[in-house]
Design brief:
two-stranded antiparallel sheet; 58% helix
Length: 491
């Protein structure tokens, strides 16, 4: 701690903290512009919860939130509800929550690096990786639950290193580890599989002296999952709807095995990591290149090599290896290749594996010490240079990505409101229309009863003003259109 009190280091830490805050909290409402329907869904349910204690369907204090045939997880919505109770409905406030999660990811990984190596330079570079990698940064631009996942995974690794099973106050360790695992499981749909897998990995800590705290952690974690198990037993299809829709587990076993291997290889493909990134344009801006920085991946590969000899004696390194491997499983059980959000735990473990590499390269008095330090400097410069280029490029590119985030919707809604039509009819076609109307209406103080949702295949009455996502409204009188939506009047 004495090193951290030196004036030069204090200034360096303050400067880094300022950079992190500026990068994370700049441009939250216009990079990207607009607000995707999933963001509106999270925010609208959070607002109804803050205002009336119910979700959009009138269910009081639910564990899962039904929307668009899916069931959204609760922690992020309850967190937004707490914020909205103070600020009122706000796009900025919602995205600040995600940006704050990004700050926590940087902090936790930097703290893990310092605990592991006691070197400030390694802590700062590790934190910079978490800040600059597109894979971990881009989700913090969106008001969606996936933004919390890197912080939870990083927080779990920090807690595991600080309070491993069997350490001093192992009851504290049990509560801490089980609590974070439960949050991981409840926070994101794919966390329902990732959480149990990460819990299973604690087996690497089992020995004659430490098996009780590991088993105790599992028992406590299982107890925290009782509400989810009850929900699953009551609504098994609802609990697994996302995996059933996006996955292939209903196929014959040989086909399941073949598809899993193909998906896993696709998720491991270096071209997607370093060049193309996630093909979903709401998750990733392809103009900036891949989802991972070359220097970070090089550091991680070095870390995997130099730590092989320590795996037998250091359970934390064994856990990092296990965690990296199982982080690919949930996404590989779905049919989308390299889905950046479903692979969100992967970059956290990759960054964690850079720590032993950095420590080895900077080891004092080591053989070939000058060469090692030279490699460290080259890779560190590569990380900072490519990461900075990404941030500058993203700042420009993201401003023009509004079409993927329904940025035209507010204009069409304002035209509908200005028409004086009451009610304004909402017609669903290729995407849901109602949730944006409810959310943007809340931002302007427009009551929900000003809108009326049309059942499928039902036409609005003559003279009605309709906000729709159908591709063909014939016969109709077009008024305006933008993105996936059009505004028209029924003749």
């Amino acid at each position: 701690m004495d090193r951290l009190r030196r004036p030069g280091l204090v200034l360096l830490l303050v400067a880094f903290a300022v950079i992190v805050l500026v990068v994370q909290f700049t441009g939250l409402t216009d990079r990207p512009p607009g607000y995707y329907i999933d963001e509106s869904s999270f925010s609208w349910n959070a607002w109804t919860l803050a205002k009336s204690g119910v979700d959009e369907h009138g269910r009081p204090w639910p564990l899962f939130f039904e929307a668009f045939g899916d069931w959204k997880t609760a922690p992020y919505i309850y967190l937004l509800a707490a914020i909205f109770a103070v600020t009122g409905p706000s796009i900025l406030a919602a995205r600040v929550v995600s940006a704050a999660a990004g700050v926590l990811t940087v902090t936790f990984l930097g703290a893990l690096a310092y605990r592991t190596t006691r070197r400030v330079e390694i802590a700062l570079l590790t934190g910079a990786m978490a800040l600059l990698i597109p894979w971990t940064f881009e989700p913090t631009r969106l008001a969606m639950e996936v933004a919390l996942m890197p912080a939870l995974v990083a927080g779990f690794l920090l807690a595991l290193h600080a309070r491993p099973p069997g350490s001093g106050h192992w009851s504290v360790s049990m509560v801490l580890l089980a609590g974070i695992l439960a949050l991981l499981t409840y926070t994101y749909t794919l966390g329902r599989l990732l959480g149990p897998l990460l819990a299973l990995g604690l087996v690497v800590y089992v020995n004659r002296e430490r098996w009780r705290p590991v088993v105790g952690t599992w028992i406590l974690y299982g107890a925290l999952l009782i509400p989810f198990v009850a929900f699953y037993l009551a609504s098994p299809e609802a609990a697994l709807v996302r995996l059933n829709e996006a996955g292939y587990l209903n196929r014959p076993l040989p086909e399941i095995a073949g598809t899993f291997v193909a998906q896993l290889l696709g998720n491991l493909h270096p071209y997607r990591w370093l060049v193309s990134g996630d093909p979903n344009l709401r998750h990733h801006a392809p103009e900036i290149g891949g989802s991972m920085l070359v220097g970070v991946l090089a550091f991680a590969l070095i870390g995997l090599v130099v730590a092989i000899r320590r795996l037998r004696t250091e359970p934390f390194l064994r856990y990092l290896l296990f965690g990296l491997a199982v982080s690919f499983i949930p996404a590989s059980l779905t049919l989308d290749v390299f889905h950046q959000h479903r692979l969100i735990a992967v970059p956290v473990f990759v960054i964690a594996w850079t720590i032993p590499a950095q420590d080895w390269l900077l080891a004092r008095g080591a053989t070939w010490g000058a060469a090692r330090k030279g490699i460290f400097v080259v890779l560190a410069v590569a990380v900072i240079a490519q990461g900075a280029w990404f941030q500058v490029r993203y700042d420009t590119v993201a401003r023009g990505r509004g079409g993927w985030f329904d940025s035209e919707y507010p204009r069409l809604l304002n035209l509908a409101l200005a028409s004086g039509a009451d009610p304004i009819y909402l017609e669903e076609g290729i995407v849901p229309t109602y949730i944006n109307a409810y959310w943007y209406g809340a931002l302007q103080g427009v009551p929900v009863d000003r809108f009326e949702r049309l059942p499928l295949d039902v036409r609005a009455p003559s003279g009605a003003v309709v906000l729709s996502s159908v591709t063909d409204c014939t016969p109709c009188e077009p008024l305006a259109e933008g993105g996936f939506y059009r505004l028209y009047r029924v003749p």
